[in-house]
Specification:
Layout (H helix, E strand, L loop, with lengths): L31 H11 L7 E4 L9 H16 L3 E6 L9 H14 L6 E3 L4 H13 L3 E4 L3 H8 L16 H12 L9 E4 L14 E5 L13 E3 L1 H11 L4 E5 L6 H11 L5 E5 L11 H9 L14 H7 L3 H11 L10 H15 L2 E2 L1 E2 L2 E6 L10 E6 L9 E6 L2 E5 L3 E2 L9 E2 L3 E4 L4 E9 L5 E8 L17 E2 L1 E3 L4 E8 L26 E8 L11 E4 L3 E5 L9 E7 L3 H8 L7
Parallel strand pairs: 1-2, 2-3, 8-9, 10-25, 12-20, 16-17, 18-21, 23-27
Antiparallel strand pairs: 4-5, 5-6, 6-7, 11-24, 12-15, 13-14, 15-22, 18-19, 19-20, 23-24, 25-26, 26-27
Helix pairs in contact: 2-11, 7-8, 11-12
The structure holds one RNA strand of 75 nucleotides.
Length: about 575
RNA sequence: UACCCCGUGGUGUAAUUGGCAACACAGCUGGUUUUGGUCCAGCCAUUCUAGGUUCGAGUCCUAGCGGGGUAGCCA
């Protein structure tokens, strides 16, 4: 048993970290939770660090949970402690086994392994025994008020509450009533067990909070064994205590539950963990509430919990995010009590940074237009194999051979008949480097009757072969391509942000978050891809040169590849182009 | 208009606990580059306000202002 010191204040002034050597670069990076734990260890309040991640199995985990997971498991790892996974399954009307499984998968996918796996429902027997103790000690009573009456009696934020008639029952009467509640003698809602604290407390959580409610519902683990179920406050801290958790880390909205958390542990005189609250994660251009995510799924705004546009872990996984990048993101954003919103570019940047190191480069043309090399006949053979490096930043990634021919697909965007001064790609009368190929000069274009360009005619410069250029020519631009005869088709799903508003959670008058759904959050196209990609398997991540990072989707088949855009490359040209809007022409 | 928490560049987090406001991202300049990617260099702050204590305040004190949370038999 560990009694808490009187001062649980986490204000900076009250912090008392260990005396870190200033030379330790990580010392400055320690967030307030870490500092509090360091201080507790120093003060011998606890002998080790034991944390837990306590999800309710009523939905899929999202990036916000990842912050909590990284915090709890990370702290345990850093400090040589332990971290449990515990399902807070005290409300059988909302919880399902499906979620229990997905949550475990998600935690493991993120790269963490729990020391012990528990369910709050495993503690129902102990919880009940403790409830009888509180009753016997005169610290809890059975209340007859209806839900409606309970609300009325509770008072308001500015007025104190009134005592429930049950408050004057004797312990013996309460014990009898509680046992009959447990035995199923009463209907749902007929009675509750309430802690006897203070109906005038300014903190409403202390106005005789409900401990047990009656619900004749089948529980996903305990079946029909129980018809009374503990409330969060009654179950959570006690579960922490049973597991000898030292630091019970939760989000800010539980801050004024802490006095109740402490009250239960004190009255029971059991191991007393310290609850510490931090600000939950908000990210721009998305929503994080389980209710809203569920609505997006149920009403088919997305294809499911694992839709690549969802901020769920299953969604991010399918989108192609790496666990490393999510962990890096969580470490990057820090932990504090200030309610902030993180710019989604931070997340995008995290995955870009990781993939830049590990994703092999490949060429794919998403919006193909044909480029014909009119002097290719001068070349000795129809096809020439070109060496292309897999990652210019990583020599060990090696290179591959790609076929080059007189008939190529290039990106429609990479050609303009008349181009602005800063356009470094191909234009009529201009030249461009074909990546890992030759420099070509454009002399003409072919158009259909509607005036659309159907073919671009170029000559190649034999002196300019990639890697053995003897021409001395310099061109401003390099573009990607694939050989028509060697390319294969693939479906490419270009995903974008799900919402157009930075904060869909605060809609304008008369609107809802659904009014800000991005109609262009998914655009699908058929791309031409280089031969090397034919062997790509689901989950493989590559960089399509000059475009972005892509992952092979689970829907992909050997004869019908599907790629998801994880994130685009940083696009400086788009910035320049948007600053100098084209005049007149489309 | 009750109680609790929080205010540091555009965004987020630091500041050896009273001693030159730092790091990252974004933005802007420029350089390198066979990806307009990567990489490199530079620029970008009256620490919410007003008083006070002090040789010295982002940090301590007082008052104000602003933001968030709380009235489930949800978690």
């Amino acid at each position: 048993m560990t009694a808490p010191p009187p001062n649980d204040d986490l204000n900076p002034a009250a912090r008392n970290g260990e005396d870190d050597s200033p030379a330790d670069p990580t010392a400055a990076r320690r967030h307030f939770v870490r500092q509090a734990i360091d201080a507790d260890l120093e003060a011998k309040r606890f002998d080790a660090v034991r944390t837990r991640f306590p999800p309710e199995p009523n939905g899929y985990l999202h990036i916000g949970h990842a912050k909590s997971i990284c915090l709890n498991f990370g702290l345990a790892k850093e400090l040589g402690g332990s971290c449990n996974l515990r399902f807070d399954d005290t409300n059988p009307s909302k919880e399902e086994t499906e979620y229990v499984e997905s949550i475990q998968e998600d935690v493991r996918w993120l790269g963490f392994e729990w020391d012990e796996l528990h369910f709050a429902s495993d503690y129902f027997e102990q919880l009940y025994a403790w409830a009888e103790k509180l009753v016997t000690d005169g610290n809890a009573y059975v209340c007859d008020l209806t839900a409606e009456q309970t609300r009325e009696y509770r008072g308001t934020l500015t007025e104190p509450g009134r005592d429930s008639p049950g408050r004057s029952n004797t312990p013996a009467e309460n014990l009898d009533l509680l046992r009959r509640m447990k035995a199923g003698e009463f209907q749902d809602g007929e009675k509750t067990l309430r802690a006897k604290i203070d109906m005038a407390a300014p903190n409403i959580n202390l106005r005789d909070p409900v401990m047990y409610r009656i619900a004749h519902i089948n529980h996903h683990r305990t079946g029909d064994a129980w018809c009374i179920y503990p409330m969060y406050d009654w179950a959570h801290g006690q579960s922490d205590s049973i597991e000898k958790i030292t630091h019970s880390i939760c989000t800010l909205e539980f801050e004024h539950h802490r006095p109740l958390y402490d009250w239960y542990c004190d009255k029971l005189a059991i191991h007393h963990p310290r609850q510490i609250e931090f600000a939950r994660l908000n990210i721009t251009y998305t929503v994080m509430s389980k209710r809203k995510l569920l609505q997006l799924v149920r009403e088919n705004y997305v294809s499911g919990w694992d839709d690549p546009r969802m901020p769920t872990l299953v969604g991010l996984r399918r989108r192609g995010y790496t666990p490393e990048s999510i962990r890096a993101f969580c470490a990057d954003i820090g932990v504090a009590k200030f309610n902030s919103t993180i710019d989604v570019v931070r997340l995008e940047n995290a995955v870009r940074e990781h993939l830049n190191e590990v994703a092999p480069r490949r060429m794919a043309v998403l919006d193909p237009v044909k480029l014909t090399i009119t002097n290719w006949a001068e070349h000795g053979s129809d096809v020439e194999m070109m060496a292309a490096v897999n990652n210019p930043g990583d020599e060990s990634a090696g290179s591959r051979e790609i076929p080059f021919s007189g008939s190529l697909w290039i990106e429609r965007d990479d050609f303009k008949e008349e181009a602005p001064r800063k356009f470094f790609r191909l234009k009529k009368g201009g030249a461009v480097r074909l990546r890992a190929g030759y420099i070509v000069d454009c002399h003409d274009v072919v158009k259909d009757s509607a005036g659309n360009i159907t073919e671009i005619l170029c000559t190649y410069d034999p002196q300019t072969k990639s890697g053995e250029d003897s021409s001395g020519r310099k061109v401003k631009g390099t573009i990607h391509w694939v050989s028509c005869d060697h390319a294969t088709e693939a479906t490419v799903r270009n995903y974008d942000r799900l919402f157009t508003a930075e904060n869909p959670d605060s809609p304008a008058e008369g609107k809802t978050f659904l009014d800000y759904l991005n109609p262009d959050s998914l655009s699908t196209t058929t791309a031409m891809i280089e031969p090397e990609l034919a062997a790509a398997a689901a989950g493989d991540r590559v960089q399509f040169e000059r475009l972005g990072y892509y992952v092979v989707d689970a829907d992909s088949r050997d004869d019908a590849l599907v790629f998801n855009r994880i994130v685009g490359l940083r696009d400086t040209w788009a910035k320049i182009a948007s600053k100098n809007p084209p005049k007149g022409k489309k």
